Amino acid sequence: MENLIRENLSINIKVIDLLNDQIKMEAKASATYLAMASWCDQHGYDHSAKFFYAQSSEEREHMLKIFKYINDNGGMAYSPTVEGVSHDYESILDLYKTALQEEIKVSKSIQNIFLTCRKEKDVASELFLQWFVNEQQEEEQKMRHAVKIYDLHGEDVENLYAIDKRIAGV
Ligand SMILES: [Fe+2]
Ligand SMILES: [Fe+2]
User: Which ligand is nearest to the CA of 141?
Assistant: First the structure.
């Protein structure tokens, strides 16, 4: 029975496995942004803290979106465990650089699943992932913008808090 159900899934089995890996990645991103919010709170970057609390919630929403998609289409979504979340950053620039690197990793992973859908002719999942492709583009842009501004104008300590307000005023 188990086999019959899996054989008749509308989502490709390889795609389901990759989507379960993606659930882990989104959960890790959510936990990482929460750690970043904490660092920002500790160091007086109030706007960035608020920004990362919001980002953390968004990542959880991404995770749930994939979770529901798998379960609604006959697959089995697995609740993720998250390990190795860093709370140590050298500076606010270092923190945003790390966030940008993480977003780039997520984008690559989404693209990889997208291309697997195409290869396996899983049209429904390809369409489902289109939203994530666009979302990743936006998230990378936000982080890249912050890195650029801190990199260009962050030398002056007084500027740091002014930039905080400007780039992460949410
Ligand atoms: Fe995400
Ligand atoms: Fe993200």
Answer: 2
Q: What pLDDT score was predicted for residue 53?
A: 97
How far does residue 93's CA lie from ligand 1's centre (Å)?
A: 21
Lowest mean pLDDT among 45-54, 76-85, 122-131, 149-158: 149-158
CATH number of the domain where residue 69 is located: 1.20.1260.10
Residue 6's pLDDT band (cuts 50, 70, 90): low
pTM: 0.91
- Name the closest ligand to CA 61: 1
Average pLDDT, the chain: 93
One-letter amino acid for residue 34 of the chain: L
Determine the pLDDT at residue 159. Answer: 82
Number of domains in the chain: 1
Report the C-alpha gap between 99 and 122 in whole angstroms: 31
C-beta atoms surrounding 28 within 10 Å: 21
If one counts every other C-beta atom within 10 angstroms of the C-beta of residue 147, the result is 21
Judged by its nearest atom, the ligand closest to the C-alpha of residue 66 is 1
**Which pair of tokens denotes residue 79?**
């609740």
The long-range contacts involving 150-158, CB below 8 angstroms and separated by at least 24 positions, are 150/92, 150/93, 150/96, 151/93, 154/91, 154/92, 154/93
Domain that holds residue 16: 2-168
